[in-house]
Known about the structure:
- By secondary structure, the chain is of the alpha/beta class.
- It has helices at residues 3-17, 34-51, 57-70, 73-80, 106-114, 130-141, 168-177, 201-212, 234-240, 250-265, 299-308, 345-351; strands at residues 92-96, 118-122, 149-151, 161-165, 183-186, 190-194, 222-228, 271-272, 277-280, 290-296, 313-317.
- The longest helix has 18 residues, at 34-51.
- Helix content is 39%, strand content 15%.
- The mean pLDDT is 96.
- InterPro entries: Ald_DH/histidinol_DH (IPR016161), CoA_reduct_LuxC (IPR008670).
- It comes from Postechiella marina.
- Keywords: NADP.
Amino acid sequence: MNLQQRINAFVKLGEFLSQFSNEIIQKKDNIEHNDLFFDGFKHQLKLAEEHNGWFTKENIAFAISGWANSLTIKNLNKWLSPYKFEQITAKKVAIIMAGNIPLVGFHDFLSVLISGHHVIVKQSSNDKHLLPYLSKYLEYVAPEFKGKINFTEDKLKNFDAVIATGSDNTARYFEYYFKNKPSIIRNNRNSVAVLTGKETAEDLKNLSEDIFRYYGLGCRNVSKIFVPKGYKFDAFFESIYHWNTIVDKAKYANNYDYNKAVYLMSEFDMLENGFFMIKEDESFASPIATLFYEYYDSTKNLKEKLATKETQIQCIVSNGFTENEISFGATQNPQLWDYADDVDSIKFLLAI
Length: 352
């Protein structure tokens, strides 16, 4: 397959996914192989939701919508145009995927195949239903992919390079285990927001999407905010209140109740509104239903501080604070060229 054929296959996959990008699923005309795959994918969505209590219908639809919007001719061409694909010798690339949010490993999967390599996927048990089915769809719209996509639950073997995502502990294991292979190893990262106190109600409402989407389980979720000394949180709490029904979900409610009890028993100072807590803390990784905050005295000092912590930070959400900032409400809508950990996976794949 040449690059254009691979692009066309993923565009067709995007068109297929567009039918499932809302909580109300709508079958469309002129989608290739729809009679064969539509009902089956509906079933996989149901299985994914039943298997993982964090994968609600809303969050699965949100993830699928993101990929349906990304997999267009325009976006794929814009993403890939800076690279040269002419001299690719196909290699076997293993991907060890996380399972914290639906289809979280899809970008790596896409990157390997779009580069002309073969992929060996080791999925998380938390997210195992959607991608294998979508791979079958890809093989139908582009039969040349057959034999180039493999899933395994066994120990990885016979591969030339690896992209692995895990916790800080597993990342250290990956770095040792794969030390003789070309690799991208990702560990825990969190996202932060910098507030000035001049944010509008709309800014703060958008920030709530960065905090609560996927229950805060993604590395692009804001888990900590930096606020100026003397900051009043009244407007913040007002702007996030529309998320109050999140506590109706049992898994979230259990975490909220547990973490609240821990804080109260430990006599920690915290503010809460019945479904969410904020706590002053220097850490970046906050528990579910909790947001950490920290005061700053000058933006200059804060920039210097965050620069020393850049390996722990995925995104910085702000308005006019730093060059590579993300707008309020945009963390969960990355573009194809927004690489995790700012590591260019296509450049890596073209060099192996």
